[in-house]
Amino acid sequence: MGNCLNSSSAKVDATLSSRTSGMSKVGSKISSSSGPSSTTISTYSGGSSSIDSVSTPRSEGEVLSSSNLKPFSFMELKNATRNFRPDSLLGEGGFGYVFKGWIDELTHLATKPGSGMAIAVKKLKPEGFQGHKEWLTEVTYLSQLHHPNLVKLIGYCSEGHNRLLVYEYMPKGSLENHLFRKGPQPLPWATRLKVAIGAARGLAFLHDAKDQIIYRDFKASNILLDADFNAKLSDFGLAKAGPTGDKTHVSTQVMGTHGYAAPEYVATGRLTAKSDVYSFGVVLLELLSGRRAVDKGKVGVEQDLVDWTKPYLGDKRKLFRIMDTRLEGQYPQKGAYTAATLASQCLNKEPKARPRMSEILASLEELQDAKNASKDHRTLSSPVPRSPVGHHRQRRSTPTASPLPTPRQSTSQVR
Ligand SMILES: Nc1ncnc2c1ncn2[C@@H]1O[C@H](COP(=O)(O)OP(=O)(O)OP(=O)(O)O)[C@@H](O)[C@H]1O
Ligand SMILES: [Mg+2]
């Protein structure tokens, strides 16, 4: 959530000047076009989830009073994070800073570090309306959506101008940290597949709900990992109710993150679940290549992961050229090729030709079942052990949200 910028990825506010001329550069969002409307969601049959109904009352008071979340006072969260100490900092996004804290599981009162339950506290930057709107959208959705592949929102703080969110702590941080930051031990192939499957389950759950939800911000930094590398989607600030009745899409202000956002959505503002599928394809490419969706540090076509990888995805013999060198060749050729083919289908220019998340999930699960990872190794050299990683504290090194001039010009958020 929020507007994070870093050198390769930044969120940008953008609105459509017209349906034909594409996006214009704006710094603020249109309040009437984003944010969820009222939805009712039935329980998803494909997993241990619980959605009864997601209703999105209009006012903050209604949202908060109808939620089953714990309301925290600012003082309680200050105590839980030891006054938002810099050494509690887990990361920074466009929304604000995220701190690690500790609370008692039953009373939810602040405890000493290391005792009770670890939490992640996201503190909204006092920057105005849009951050607050996303905060409320996140509370609205996450207070009512429960699934093993969605991060758990424990509570919130709304006191004066302070807006905070309290989540379960995810010990391995974000996928982004593991794939792109120096230091962390490279994720083995089997773990990459596991993460892709977990994230696919989260998206399939949202898309297959009776009243569909489009996530709109699928990217490596929003995939959080628990101690066993189970993936959970975080950041529901941009989530949007899917089309209803005989509508094929929802028309919205263009929001998301460049490099991940589907080109037809960026060009027209027409949002469908297939926009999330495109973003999933980009993350699959990141998992295969270990490279960011957009990397301004590279030259020419290599700056754009989708463009750069395109010629290699359908060619079994050339695929190794785009594979993450940090895998040291330790991946099943067949499995990698299947994943690359899947990515290529997700990235189809024609949204209708992209597979559904449930189909993608089934293909990935098949790959995992085939146990390709252990049987079909193409070993070039033995893996080099690297220093172990925990959850590294991060400050953003990439720019955040600012208006996005043209699609794909930078990697920032389209917001
Ligand atoms: N529940 C959590 N547990 C552990 N770490 C977390 C949790 N939530 C966020 N973080 C850490 O904080 C970082 C910043 O998160 P945040 O969602 O604010 O920004 P982001 O996802 O990097 O960017 P954006 O604002 O574009 O979503 C994450 O990348 C992650 O490392
Ligand atoms: Mg995030």
Automatic annotation (TrEMBL):
Keyword Membrane belongs to the record: yes
Main location: membrane
Region Disordered, residue ranges: 1-64, 367-415
Binding positions (ATP): 123
Sorted UniProt keywords: ATP-binding, Cell membrane, Kinase, Membrane, Nucleotide-binding, Plant defense, Serine/threonine-protein kinase, Transferase
GO MF annotations in UniProt: ATP binding; protein serine/threonine kinase activity
Enzyme Commission code: 2.7.11.1
SUPFAM superfamilies documented for this protein: Protein kinase-like (PK-like)
Subcellular location: Cell membrane
Positions with biased composition (Low complexity): 21-56
Cellular component per GO, a single term: plasma membrane
Residue span, Protein kinase domain: 84-380
Bias (Polar residues) ranges: 1-20, 397-415
One of the GO biological process terms: defense response
Compositional bias segments (type: Basic and acidic residues): 368-379
Recorded family membership: Belongs to the protein kinase superfamily.
The protein, known as: non-specific serine/threonine protein kinase
Gene: APK2B
